[in-house]
Amino acid sequence: MQDKIINRLIEDEHVQAPVIGIGVSPFEQHHLEAFFQSFPHELNASFIVVQNHVTGDCVTDLEALVLPIGYRVKPIKHGEKVMKNTIYVCPQHAAVTLTEDKRLHITEQHPTNKACAVNSLFQSLANVQKEEAYAIFFQKGYCVGSGLLQIVEQGGTAISCSETNSGFDRMYHQTFQDPSALASYIANIINVPHTDVADPVLIRIIERLEMHKGIAFSTYEKRRLLSVIQKRMRSANQSISLLSEYDRLLEREPDELDRLHVQLLSGTTSFFRDMEAFRVCEHHIIPSIIDNTMKNGKSRCRIWIAGCSTGEEAYSFAMLFLEEMKRRQVSIELQVFATDINRKAIQSASKGVYSLESMARMPEKWRARYFEKKGDAFIVKQSLRKHIVFAPHNLLIDSPFIHLDFISCRNVLMYFQPEVQKRVLSRFQYALKDQGMLILGPNEKVPNIPRLFHLFNEKWNIYTHSNVPKYNAGHTELKERAVQYMKEVEQEYDACFIIDDCEKILAISNGAYSFLAHAEVSDELCEYVTPDYMKEILSQSFQKVWTEETEVVFQHVLISENGRKQYADFTVKHFDRRFKGVYVILIRKSERGKNQKNGRDKGMLEQNSVYQQRIVDLENELNEVKQKEQEARAQLKEKNKQIEVREKTNEHFINIINNLKVTREELYRPSVKPELATLFVDREMNIRYHTPTAASLFTSAQTRHQQTFQSMVKKLSKEMLYHDIQSVISDRRVIEREIETNEGEQFTVHLTPFYDQDREGAVMTWIKMTEMTKLKQALHLAVTALDNSHIHIVVATGEGVIQCVNQRFCQFVQQHEYDLIGKDIFSVYYALCQCDDLAKQWDVCLREGSWTGELYFQDLSGRERWERVSLHRIDDPDKMQSTVMRISEDITSQKQSEKMLMKSEMLSAVGQLAAGIAHEIRNPLTSLKGFLQLMIQSKKYQKDYADVMMSEFNRLESIINEFLVLSRSKSVKFEPVNVNLLLEEVIMVVESQAVLKGVSIQKNLAPSLPHIQGIPNELKQVFLNILKNGIEAMDGVTGVIQVTSLLKNDQMMLIFEDQGKGIPEDEIGKLGEPFYTTKEKGTGLGLMMTIKIIESHGGTIRFESKSFEGTRVIITFPSN
């Protein structure tokens, strides 16, 4: 008794309950806990929790997880069966899958494969649970791959929960931010009462749909329909649990019927969905189709994308075909028929507009080649769109397309019942050419694939349609077995045929010839059987044996044997299982009335059913005719559109012709365009018309018409232009020629053919080129002068594309003229001087019309260069665009001369400096001499005198030290210096003085600056001088001194910027001159010493200032 109770409890544990897969990221574990706290404990369910491993260990502490009452949590063990009211937690670095018998299988997962575990779980749920699969993902910006997509495709439910939205929310049926609301939603789903697919209410809802839209939903798989209907029941304004309530809602609200219809027909698709399947097609299927097309000498390739939804798959396959044709450089017309029963989806596909998110899987080169970006969307280019015809199409009713090389019908047949699947596949078989290819969805399990579909790729459900026999045994062995078999049955049956699945006769018994129309048998069996209805009997028998793997018997069939009518029994079955695709037909004569027993249990067929099948075949033929008619109508419609376009074009040309007629009449008049010398000459070289200007060409000013061209022209040699005129009239082409008359005048002559109803001839226009030649010479002289001048000239479009350069500019940038034309001027200058100031100047020129200034830069060799630059905008009103001419002059030599002149001026100031030195030193020396004399006279030490003398000595020492710095020898040893550290020390020294004067010092020192070679004490003196000058300049002003260090273009820059009274612009150039100072008690030697130290370190110092706007000191050191 105890064992029975235990077994009963175990059975109760394993009672069927919904299995819900949960994926959770480490950032959302609190949502998982809140979900389980809110889940109703009275509901039976099983949960499988897998962490999307990014960081950390398992989902959470199992002991700390708060569970619904009656639920338990446990780690997954390999092979255990799922029990109700249990939460299974997948171990770290492992993946779990659910099997058909509801057992859990564990496999190891690589630590770097982050989303594989969640993806594997969702894939197994989709494969096992189908439309009853449930997936929840507690995520924050993550997507779990194809597993989630498979659940959606199978009709399952996918839900996400997160505080923030992600780019993948559209993949889910519902998204929640509150875990308690999610728990209530799941409870409503699993609490829906079970509904039988034969429920009359479900049948009534399906009938409503069929009447509403005319689509045969009764042929759809009932469980999938029920799953979609239940989703709509949960999504209604008020959640509905009973199917009968939803039926009444449909009756009350027709809009809900529309929403249900839309959800039933909505398909999930994307570009290159199942990328591996597309790779198989790209590398194997499509090259094979192209090979067959070329081998058969065809110039057209036809493919059909059945169930194309919004068009992504149709465009994907079209791109693969076009790329293969482009790779082979073959000229094959591609026709893609993309169909779907959903008209709104077809309209969307026809527009070819897709979001950035939908283009995620698109290779970048194909995106640029086949799509055009407009705003946030991508639009299919005409080069791809022209190959595809989108049309609404019902696979069950409408005629199939025919003579196809390839059919894609992925994830469509799984929505139909098995019998309907067979019917659709039969249509595909009829539509495909020999060696045509068929691809179905990877999860579609279609029973009894027709006999003429050979499996090509099992994983991706790819098949080949072929008429080649499939039996593999040797032909000799087959013949031997056929002879043996006929001996075995010759006593029981009157005739025996052995055929293959292409209805080719492989062997025949002696008694069988009387049933055939001809004595020789070398072709298809049905072509020789009489009467005609026997062909239908055999065809239907073969189909039933092939598709249902069964034996077919016909009894009491009226046949003709040697012209005599009688009855016979027919049996069609497999010949021998060793020979795949080989069948046997056995015939036994019978009398009518004998053995009337019905043989339905053996697969017998009634003769009436044969006629019925014949009717079906005739209907198929009729559908084929309708299909051809439909294609013809489509082509006719397209032709009509072309005719309309041509009519409009013709109307345009008619207007042009009328205008030309008017122009011709005007040209006939001698007064037309008198400024041009124009002649009308016919084939006989008679001058029909001429303008007054042409009179200068003739022998006499009084010229009559109908005179010959050569007799009237005075300035040409006899044969000149004669052959050209004849060539223009005969070949109907235009000739332009430069000629020189006997008097040395130069002309350009244009000869154009002329035709009307009455005559044919040539129009000659003479343009005097003497003045133009002078202009050309002058222009050539000007161009030569510009090329050899010292000025650099470049002309570019407003966008910076170089159009014209002179030779001096080419020498300046060290590139050939032909290499520069068409290049971007900004990139040329950046490569030369590593500066981007040109773009700013360019914008100013385009905006204001011109820009002028001087530019300083260092070329690639490190030499300092100066340019005087002018930019001028040139407007072209005809082209509605502007060009810019840049004129520059290299003034480096001028700047160096100015610098040398400045140094010479400084040398000339040495005399002044000597005088100043004498003055500065003589004053303290005079003081010292006087006090010494006083102390000598007094013959005693006086401290007051000594203090004054010591201060004078200190003053002398300071002046001498400053001059020693100015005259320091270059042999001083340099050492690596950390500039940032020196600045910190100097700022610390002067900061107290700055605070007393209301000035703060702000540091912006770049980290990790390289060391420079220098003398630390001298650099400290420089920084002290600059900071003290800045503090003194801000006397009476509260503000900030900015100290900045940075690395730019491999140079270290130090910037000191105060907010003091500033320096007038006209006095900035005097800074650094001996004894020039802006301070009341200054000597000017401090700044002169600063400049000397900076230059001795290989650096530069620059001052920028304006009155009352502060001063900016910029020091630059080489980083190496």
List keywords for this structure.
1120 residues; alpha/beta; Rossmann fold; seven-stranded parallel sheet; seven-stranded mixed sheet
Kindly describe this structure.
Residues 916-1120 form the Histidine kinase domain. Keywords: ATP-binding, Coiled coil, Kinase, Methyltransferase, Nucleotide-binding, Transferase, Two-component regulatory system. Residues 190-457 form the CheR-type methyltransferase domain. Residues 851-903 form the PAC domain. It contains 31 helices and 41 strands. 41% of the residues lie in helices and 23% in strands. The chain has 8 domains: 2-190, Rossmann fold; 200-265, no CATH class; 275-465, Vaccinia Virus protein VP39 (Rossmann fold); 475-605, Beta-Lactamase (2-Layer Sandwich), CATH 3.30.450.20; 669-768, PAS domain (Beta-Lactamase), CATH 3.30.450.20; 773-896, PAS domain (Beta-Lactamase), CATH 3.30.450.20; 909-966, Orthogonal Bundle (Helix Hairpins); 975-1118, Histidine kinase-like ATPase, C-terminal domain (Heat Shock Protein 90, 2-Layer Sandwich). A hairpin with a 4-residue loop joins strand 20 and strand 21. Mean pLDDT is 75; it is low at 4-12, 54-60, 519-531, 592-607, 668-672 and 701-706. The longest helix has 62 residues, at 607-668. The chain has a 7-stranded parallel beta sheet, sandwiched between helices. The protein has a 7-stranded mixed beta sheet with strand order 15-11-10-16-17-19-18. It has 1120 residues and is α/β, with parallel strands linked by helices. Helix 2 (29-38) packs across helix 5 (179-190) and helix 7 crosses helix 9.
